[in-house]
Design brief:
68% of the residues lie in helices and 1% in strands. With 483 residues, it is an all-alpha fold. The protein has one domain: Amino acid/polyamine transporter I. Strands 1-2 form a two-stranded antiparallel sheet. β1 and β2 form a beta hairpin.
């Protein structure tokens, strides 16, 4: 039977206790990790992508994406507090919906985390390459973008890149930092989170006086958009969803969290709430200060926030904000790779991935093998592809996983109503279906070509891997708890 392999929650918790990672993260560290994972390429870079798709209507896009994420976070908090182990949506699906669905969720999460890390690295390289060029140390064109990416030259012509060297290097440096230890990574991230918050606050304060009502018209130049079109407000919402993704990375740290029943919900909901406030303010100010019509200068900018500040007469502050992005965006790469390694670590512990992925470094207490493999994969993707395509593909995997988590929480309410729930999703029979509907809407708003098409190809490849390797090596099927 395809759907007969369900791993009991008690067995999952027992497995984690026998071979757990070191618990060393508190509520504040989790919130900083969450904010560090959320605030990044989405707001610093994809603002221009949203402007191209929706114009000033991108403000509605931020609201739509924020609502879907808020609903999902409420659902996530319940299951994450119940099952405080590494693995995120993969583990939750294994406990409720069975091994095949869990495998597909874990496979989809590779798109969320690994591809997202590549996207952030590419976004970071846009600011870094711009800074290097401004001080006379710019790299040759073919080293500033991948072969499937384009660069707008000063004379307005468009050229293709060759190998994004800066994105490649930062991915490998972050990988090395993660191998060195989670505690060090968390402290490093907390510092960079403060840098990002200060940079966004500075942008809001200086650009707010430049807001003009005329810049908000026409409000919907591309309309609301239709499913599969990938344009309009819904298309921009599907892309800008990337700006909120990352709060769920908090749940991947469950097994390394002190008092996870209390601290995981705080980290999830707290980090998302803080970021949502910043995003709405930045979106309003960006549109009002510079305009956001498709094909305009903001829509074409590689460093949109810095561009706006330069445009309204603050070149020095623009450089400061650009420098903050350069300093801070690697923390998002760190959290994305971190989340990916913990999911693959858990899948390997279950026998669904090669058991070498579950090896823990004797000194650093980190899953070093899977971290290095993931980091190399991320680095090469970042070197080859553009940020917009990577972000959309990442979103497809995220939305699929979020849908399954919401479904799983509602199923568990029926199948195991008596289990202790340190955090209960309020109005779950309203919140859950709304979260699922929102995920479906945004998924189809990504557009068929290439995003959904690539997702389908990836899913088929994942099914082949499962039936040729993972299903035979599953610890649950063989009656093995831990190898």
């Amino acid at each position: 039977m395809l759907f007969d392999r369900v791993k009991p929650l008690d067995q999952i918790l027992a497995t984690a206790e026998k071979r757990s990672l070191k618990r060393q993260l508190g509520a504040f560290s989790l919130m900083m990790l969450g904010i560090g994972a959320i605030i990044g390429t989405g707001i610093f870079v994809l603002t221009s992508v949203a402007a191209q798709k929706a114009g000033p209507g991108m403000m509605y896009s931020f609201v739509i994406s924020g609502i879907v994420c808020a609903l999902t976070a409420l659902v996530y908090a319940e299951i994450a507090a119940m099952v405080p182990v590494a693995g995120s949506a993969y583990t939750y699906s294994y406990a409720v919906l069975g091994e095949l669905i869990a495998w597909m969720v874990g496979w989809a999460l590779i798109l969320e985390y690994a591809v997202a890390a590549s996207a952030v690295a590419v976004g970071w390289s846009g600011y870094a390459n711009g800074f290097l060029a401004s001080v006379g140390a710019g790299l040759p064109l073919w080293l500033t973008a991948g072969p499937w990416d384009t660069v707008v030259l000063p004379d307005g012509t468009v050229a293709s890149g060759g190998f994004n060297l800066v994105a490649f290097i930062v991915s490998l440096l972050v990988t090395w930092l993660l191998v060195a230890g989670t505690s060090k990574s968390a402290k490093f991230t907390s510092v960079l989170v403060m840098v990002k918050i200060l940079a966004l606050t500075l942008f809001i304060v200086l650009a707010f006086p430049a807001v003009k009502s005329a810049n908000f018209y026409p409000m919907l130049p591309q309309g609301w958009g239709t499913p599969l079109s990938g344009t309009g407000v819904l298309g921009a919402a599907a892309s800008i969803f990337f700006a909120y993704v990352g709060f769920d990375a908090v749940s991947t740290a469950s097994e390394e969290t002190v008092n996870p029943n209390r601290n995981i919900p705080i980290g999830l909901i707290g980090s998302l709430a803080i970021c949502t406030v910043f995003y709405l303010l930045v979106a309003y100010v960006a549109v009002g200060a510079a305009g956001a019509q498709p094909g305009g200068s903001l829509a074409l900018a590689k460093d949109p926030l810095a561009f706006i500040l330069r445009d309204i007469g603050h070149p020095l502050v623009a450089r400061i904000v650009g420098s903050a992005a350069i300093l801070a965006l690697p923390s998002v790469v760190l959290m994305m790779i971190y989340g990916q390694t913990r999911i693959l670590f858990t899948m390997a512990r279950d026998g669904l991935m090669p058991k070498a992925f579950a090896k823990v470094h004797p000194r650093y207490h980190t899953p070093h093998v899977v971290t290095i493999i993931t980091g190399v994969f991320v680095a090469f993707f970042a070197a080859m592809f553009p940020v917009g395509k990577l972000a959309d593909i990442s979103n497809s995997g995220t939305l699929f996983a979020f849908f399954m988590v919401a479904l799983g929480v509602m199923v568990l309410r029926k199948t195991d109503p008596g289990r202790a729930r340190p955090f209960r999703t309020p109005l779950v029979w309203i919140v859950g279906p709304l979260a699922m509907a929102g995920c479906v809407l945004l998924f189809f708003s990504l557009g068929w070509n290439p995003t959904i098409k690539y997702f389908c190809i990836w899913a088929v490849f994942g099914l082949l891997v499962y039936f040729l390797f993972s299903r035979k090596h599953s610890n649950l099927a063989r009656g093995i708890d831990i190898e």
